[in-house]
Amino acid sequence: MDFAHPWVFACLALVPLMVYWYRKKYDSRQGSVRVSSAQAFSASSLKVYLRHVPFILRLLAVVALIIALARPQKRNDQQQTIGEGIDIVLCMDVSGSMGSRDIQPSRMEVAKEVAEEFVRSRPVDRIGLVIFSGESFTQCPITTDRNTLIRQIQTLESRRFLKDGTVIGEGLATAVGRLSESKAKSRVIILLTDGKEDAPDSRLIDPVTALEIAKTHQVKVYSIGMGAIPSSIVEITGHDGGQPRNPAMDFIDEDLLRRIANETGGRYFRAKDKEALQNIYKQIDQMERSKVEMTSYKRFRELFLPFVLAALVFLFIEIVLRLTWLKKFP
């Protein structure tokens, strides 16, 4: 419950003044007879105990009227978001090297956390998720269901289901495929990887071909190379329990990522820590702004009427008691 005129409650200061005035004047208004002993008048009746009830009822009436004048209201706030969104696909590398801890607690955990923050900051966009390692997979089609997409991001683990390797080309091609039928004016892919093309024999699309596909569909790509300097990277065990390999050997192909970004109208970024990755997503967020209109609705339901009725009831009962059962004779 809110009050439209809360300053009216200052009038409640009148209540203690009324009590003081009543106690001061009460005795002077009573009739008196001088007698040698008051023993005969020691018996009490119900009227004696209830003689202050009319005044109490008047105080309650005054309090109820003050509350009514403060205009108690029940407020219901609603907000409607209307906008022209952008279709975005997060294309994330989930290869084994993403488990490296050169960025604490790991590259994968940081990438997931920052991606989740980005999704929450885009209220009207449709966003999807594509992952790739030795093969690519659509984890979540483009959607406006933020909760579902965030759950999919939170469950990502490096190289859990996909083949070992890094197929940047197939990951990019899959992401473009998600946007190929999009009617949005702006279609964007955020490609994040910590390595270079390391494709198995089953590869279908190389990075250059994927780049041409993105250009054909007029999809803008922002590419992010993630990871600290190679010397700080720990060894990662092979997917099938094979010989350990040093992810430094597969370190970022910046020339490829820069080419993909430049030729599609995007931009290449380098993220060496969590703060840098957060700043990159913020820059992308600023460069790809959606047209959003937010309309707020405030509905009020007046609640003063019950207090007015209560005040009238208190006054009515007071008047009836003063004129009948508790009537005084001069």
TrEMBL record:
Residues 87-284 form the VWFA domain. The keyword Thylakoid does not apply. Keywords: Cell membrane, Membrane, Transmembrane, Transmembrane helix. It comes from the Bacteria. The chain crosses the membrane at residues 7-23, 49-70, 303-325. The keyword Lipoprotein does not apply. InterPro entries: Aerotolerance_reg_N (IPR024163), UPF0353/GerABKA_families (IPR050768), VWF_A (IPR002035), vWFA_dom_sf (IPR036465). This is VWA domain-containing protein. It comes from Terrimonas ginsenosidimutans.
